[in-house]
Amino acid sequence: MTTQDTTTQHTPTTPDAPAAGAPYAPEHSPRLAWAELAPDVYKAMVRLDAAARRGVDPTLLELVKIRASQLNHCAFCLDMHTKDALAAGESVERIVQLGAWEESRHFYTEKEIAAIELTEAVTVITEGFVPDAVYERAARHFEEADLAQLIASITVINAWNRFAVTCRMVPGHYRPGGHR
User: Between vectors from CA 156 to CA 40 and to CA 144, what angle results, nearest 5°?
Assistant: First the structure.
């Protein structure tokens, strides 16, 4: 991560983007290039991420990462994981509906719902603890080893979110597959 001039503007590349020259707010600069300043921690996080995702279905993993990032208001990680999910073949519709999954359950399998619900419970831990009912639903859909990997993956994306939000990492420049 490098420091950027605060006058830089991100130009959307989507087909629905406003016409060229439309006014956009200036892009903010990151606060701190933490990965460069704490390279051993960054490398350890990359290894932890790789270890946590072993055996977790890649589609499910991206849904979990997107949902945790939505809850943590991490624009950098939302940018990354929605692009990775789309590149992996996930539908726009399922990504869009993820923010309101309880009202659009029919877009997801029961196993995905259990993982999304567990993601919310682990991410929003300030509301108390992971309720037994949420954990038990997840345990019905995942073998113990798979559940342990899923919990590890949820925990790791929450850590990434906290680094990105705290350091104000700038969304909009990620290219799919660029973090592995």
Answer: 125
